[in-house]
Input
Amino acid sequence: MNATGPRRGWWPRSVRARTALAAASAAAVILVSIGWWVHCDVYRESTQIAEGQTEKQFLALVDQLEEGVVPLRRSTVPYEIVATGRRAAVAYGGGMEEFDPGTRHVLPAPPKAELPAPPDEGPNWGYTTRPVRLPARPDSAPGGRFGKGGGTYLVMYDDVRADELSSDTVAALGVAADAQLRVYVVMLPHAGEEMAETITEATDRRLLQAGLVSLVLIAAVVYFAVRIALRPVEAIRVLTASVTASDPRERVTVPAKGHEITALATTINSTLQRLDDAAAQQRRFVADAAHELRSPLTTLLTSLEVALAYPERTNWPAAATTAARQTRRLQALTEDLLLLARLDTRAPTAGSENLDLTALAFRLAEQYPFTESPLTLTCDSTAPAHVHGNPDEYERLLRNLIDNAARHAAHRIQITIRSQDGWVVLTVHDDGPGVPAKDAERIFERFVRLDDSRSRDEGGTGLGLAIARDLAHQHRGTLTLTPRTLGACFQLRLPQASASAEE
Output
């Protein structure tokens, strides 16, 4: 009986749905990982872009100053231009008005310019970045871009000498001719973060929409792909559902080579073929058993009915002898059938007992009765041959081989026992007519007699060799017919057991 464990309510039972769900889950993990990487990368790139824009605006302020243009207060970045010898800022904007720098500059003034001026080394696009502490805002200042209590901010700055500017520019800026000007740009951290967050949020929305659509498409594609792939399995299921034990002749269609279902279809066809063979063998066995039982029963019933019909003319001792002979034949046939039934339902096992096959063969050779024909039975062995198993079953196996040889031998039967490479090899050789090569395996089938002209009484039940081979297989051995120029030779191979096991 097949037992199934409890199923989780949220997990689908369909293979298609399970595969689609598993593929969608794996895709979701991959897409989330990719989305997180894209999120972090976009945020980093957006921050760098914001910093680059701040740098561009800073350099533009320096260029305007060198050209004599006073920058406007409207700016996207806070800036302040201060000069030596000047209390108020030269220019400011972008939020620096929150500190009311009109009367006094907020950021520190540069040192005085060196005189004379250093030699010109060509264009210099360098600038300096360092943290600067900004003062607290006045209480009256409205809320703006800086904290009310001040704080430390990273600033970019660069110095410009007034003596390098034209007199009109110096006059326009309102500074002394020997002054030094410094351009400050305050880098607000939240400004870059705001830009990065805006870009990242837009990117995340697009990624989420694309991810959801991708998951639905992946799940749908996998679902229908698995559905198409499982069509051969469904066809196999429908066909095998119509197979019955009494008629297992149906066969499934085997897909082309390279298909994963090919092995399954081939295995199922092999299983169905074995079932068909087993059913055919069972039908033949039942038919043969019925036929074999009918013959002695008919003979027994006929002799008894004749004796009862003509009691005064019946030789009662002869009738009783015939009845006894047919009864013994029925008994032997019944015992053989029961033994075969037990062997068919028992798994091959090696018994725990240890016995000497040589001693058993010599004992059977000495005790075997030859009542009707003068046969010579000899046994040849060089040493004891120990095997594991059931002594009664081994005796039945050897007796069946000797009985078969005795029915076909002309003058003698030779038994030999040898030990070879961990195996015990026993042969039973007779000098009879032998067995044709084409029937070397057929003689081990049940109820098979090659000599149909023989009487049933002399020919046996037709089960002796079948029982012998099944007993050999039960003890993990083999029984085969080996080719000989004269007579038939049956070879029995059994695993050898150590002699110490018996002790």
Observations:
- The chain has three domains: 12-113+128-229, 261-343, 347-501.
- DSSP finds ten helices and twelve strands in the chain.
- Residues 15-66 form the longest helix (52 residues).
